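Now for one record.
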Amino acid sequence: MTEPFFLDPEAVRERLPFLKRRNRIAYMIRAFFTERGYIEVETPYAVPVPGEEVHLDVFATNRVGPDGGTEALFLHTSPEFAMKRIVSAIREPVFQMARVWRNGEGSALHAHEFTMLEWYRPGADLNALMDETEELVRLCLPPVVTRQVGQDIRIDIPFERITVAEAFRRYVGADVLATEGDAPALARDAGCELRPNEEWEDLFFRLLLERIEPIIGRERPVFLTHWPSSQAALARRCREDSRTALRFELYMGGIELANAFEELTDAEEQRSRFVHDRSRRRTLYPERPDWPTDERLLAALPSLPDCSGIALGFDRLVMIATGAPHIRDIVWLG
């Protein structure tokens, strides 16, 4: 028998300073984008296509129509597809503070339901988006923040920008681009044992999680840029090196705070990437639900202006600002 639910006044009072700070940061974010001419949008949460990220699990439901017919819907993992359709139609910058859902997640940094700040800026390349993201983070955080492990992170100096290839050379000792697709070669470079059935992508993320993410951003925030093209399904390839894609992630104190792309506008290339990812998802997770390809997004992509877009974990930003050790400390009811 489950315990009856009640709101613990003491628990809420303990979190109240964090929650008030959360509200102030949300206000600053909305003012930041409004002053820059962005339009705040709101897109549906229950959608026919929740996203195409291979490893994310979803929440499924059904919509019942007035005639009794049903349609399979899912709580979205990101508002990205819907927001790109809006930008394709109006060709203006937009932002959204959206609730998103990822099933099966839970840790100090992960929740099955959380708030994502996303924005899309026509005319911006990856460098311009990094500049804007840095401005926003500086606005929301004090000059120095301290993570629970006791490290001070400087916000008042330029954020570091390094490529994924450089990070692997520096912290793993491997040439990640030369070994792409060759798991044994990457393992040899990294001086590690390849696990049973471990493919190149699996090893790439293992090394990223174990050797790079805990280190980068310890003294100042770091943009990790130019990812292997296979790891950026929604981003344009780099013109100077087609082995890489125009993607960055922002790290602070070992926390991944944001993920961004210079957006792909080629519908046929996007379709082929979706086909590849959907096949991989079905192979890895045959028990999970399936959904149709988002044809509305693909139809809109040719009209999408050159732009960059970013998803930033709002709850994690609040955690960094307040020093809260767990994501449940900065939500009203967790």
Residues 1-5 have pLDDT under 50 and may be disordered. The two ends are 20 Å apart (CA to CA). The longest strand covers residues 113-122. Residues 16-159+220-330 form a domain with the BirA Bifunctional Protein; domain 2 fold (CATH 3.30.930.10).
